[in-house]
Amino acid sequence: MTTPGRLPDPYGRDGGGANLADILERVLDKGVVIAGDIRINLLDIELLTIKLRLIVASVDKAKEMGIDWWEDDPALSSGARRKELARENAELRERIEQLEQLGPGRDRQEKEA
Could you tell me if residue 34 is left (phi over 0), alpha (psi between -120 and 50 degrees) or otherwise beta? Predict the structure, then answer.
């Protein structure tokens, strides 16, 4: 009984290739951009266009490229949520101060009128 010979490994696991951790480290260090568009047309009428833009990079590399939107997103950053709450609190204090400057008799006069 003969057994078929083993085919060469396409990913080069014979010691010269990189494993998944090495590839991931390289991708995160350098960054990868994937871009594409999907268009659906019917009789030359564009029904739907989807533009895909994907960047895979480490946080440090993203910041180096000027991408830091997650720092200002209240859903993703507690610091951004605190800033939003502080801004909202300041606006409410300003509105309260404006109402207090009108005086207590002003409110009654408006209700009677």
Answer: beta
